Amino acid sequence: MRGFRGGFVGEAMRMGMGRRFSAGELQTILLALLEERPSHGYELIKTLEERSGGFYVPSPGVIYPALTYLEETGLAEVENEGTKKLYKITEAGRRKVEENRDMIDQTLAKLERIAEGMAFVNRMFDPDQPQGGGGRGGHGHRRRDHEDDEFGRDHSNVHAARQLLRSALRMRHPWSTSEAARISAILERAAMEILQGGKTDPHQD
After folding, report:
1. Is the distance from CB of 131 to CB of 28 less than 8 angstroms?
2. Distance of CA 4 to the CA centre of its chain
3. Contact of 183 with 172, CB cutoff 8 Å
4. DSSP string covering 21-86
5. What is the DSSP letter of 4?
6. How far is CA 97 from CA 15, 29, 37, 87, 166, in A?
């Protein structure tokens, strides 16, 4: 495993805490999701939440103005279902998606990496949650499930420290942007020391 800096925590801070999507980025990502299937606004919120492992959850006050813009500019159309609106991409919207395909693929890939990182952190900080299972993904995933099972059964001093850390994080949550930066810096330093086997300088013998 690589250190947190430059990995999912860095990306998550830039994408979810340090800098949220710009209006144009969010509109384009929403179009890409609508290209996959027509959706209601709340379904799009849920999709972004799931794809980021719960890290990025845009509010209705962010999503619905973006959808209104897409409708007004002809990039999406609306089918009224009683009090609900089902949003669908138009041909103009599909062209917009194709023009921005590289950015869309990169952004969705980042969300996926953040989700994987969040899943790892949840396993590390919450040893009591269900481990393994699923049966999908072949030998590599089965080996990872086995390693997760062994990790979850750890009852050493490390287990107690993980429980303490989990409690500390829960007590401090929800946190501000500055507090999130402070906590992530602490966790990154701890992770690097663990990876270095206690050495403060990785170049020392």
Report:
1. no
2. 14
3. yes
4. PPHHHHHHHHHHHHHHS-B-HHHHHHHHHHHTTTS----HHHHHHHHHHHHHTTSEEEEEETTEEE
5. S
6. 20, 8, 14, 15, 41
Instruction: Please check the confidence at residue 99 and state whether its pLDDT lies above 50.
Output: yes
Q: For residue 74, count other CB atoms closer than 10 A to its CB.
A: 12
If we measure between CA atoms, which residue out of 87, 111, 83, 98 comes closest to residue 20? 111
Query: 3-state SS of 68-84?
Result: HHHHHCCCEEEEEECCE
pLDDT in tens, 113-172: 777 766 666 665 555 554 444 433 444 444 445 555 565 566 677 778 877 887 888 888
CA distance 100 to 25: 10
Q: Is the pLDDT of residue 76 over 90?
A: yes
The residue ranking higher by pLDDT, 128 or 70, is 70
> 38: which 2 tokens?
């027509």
Q: pLDDT band for 109, please (50, 70, 90 cuts).
A: confident
